[in-house]
Amino acid sequence: MPSNFLSKIFKIQAIINKTLMECKDIDNAMHLFSSITKKSNYMYTVMFKGLVTNNVPEKVLDLFDEMKIEPNQFTLSTLFNACAVLNNNRAMKTGKKLLDEMPENYRNNNITSTSAIDMLMKFGDVESAERIFRSIKAKDIIAYGAMVKGYVGNEMFEKALDLFEQIHLSLTNVIYAIVFNACAKLCNDRAMKIGKELLAKMPENYRNNNITSTSAIDMLMKFGDDESAERIF
């Protein structure tokens, strides 16, 4: 492919990204995108991410319907994300079809599998999400986070804590916030024990994170431990 053609394509991609992400000019970005005759998976992924960020996931599926190439693992992850955000009948049909047709080697990719788990959890299809999670050979903290968050979103708080207790990896601030949320919702003896032990072990730098601290405060208030909540505040 000639270098001047590649240079032109990269410039158009940069303009589309700037138009979508900074100017939020969806119509002009769509017009520019349609002017590209040979679209790559990278271009579709950039466009899809921009549309999701601008809260128009329906347009992602419109573009996907016109797509003439097979989506790669990165494009698939973005499509699963769009379906999760949209979460209507069309999104469920598209997302599950994509998942059924996904090449086997993509199922071993944690990013793609985690995006699929998040989508299925949003659909309320917990059983399918669990199947994918079990199939991941080397589970990372992001995959665990998607499952725990999904259980909480589906009000399966005991399952969220069951899975949390199986994690033997370094915890992120996101995991802390999700587990504090699960403990706050459950609010029984087990939840209080897990929540308070987790809070005691939480690294100091996470205490300066507003999301984590707010989740901890909410949990402690639900436990009736106003004094500890006030100390964090």
Description of the molecule:
This protein has 233 residues and is mostly helical. The chain is built from 15 helices and no strands. InterPro entries: PPR_At4g14850-like_plant (IPR046960), PPR_rpt (IPR002885), TPR-like_helical_dom_sf (IPR011990). Pfam families: PPR, PPR_2.
Low-confidence stretches: none
Give the % helix: over 70%
Might you state the CATH topology name of the largest domain?
Answer: Serine Threonine Protein Phosphatase 5, Tetratricopeptide repeat
Distance between the termini: 58 Å
Mean pLDDT: 91
| Major sheet size, sense and barrel closure | none
Our estimate of the beta-strand percent is under 5%
CATH architecture of the largest domain: Alpha Horseshoe
Number of domains: 2
- Alpha-beta classification: mainly alpha
Q: What layout of secondary structure does this protein have?
A:
Layout: H1 3-21, H2 26-34, H3 41-53, H4 57-66, H5 73-86, H6 89-101, H7 110-123, H8 126-135, H9 141-153, H10 157-164, H11 173-186, H12 189-201, H13 204-207, H14 210-223, H15 226-232
Helix pairs in contact: 1-2, 1-3, 3-4, 3-5, 4-5, 5-6, 5-7, 6-7, 7-8, 7-9, 8-9, 9-10, 9-11, 10-11, 11-12, 11-14, 12-14, 14-15
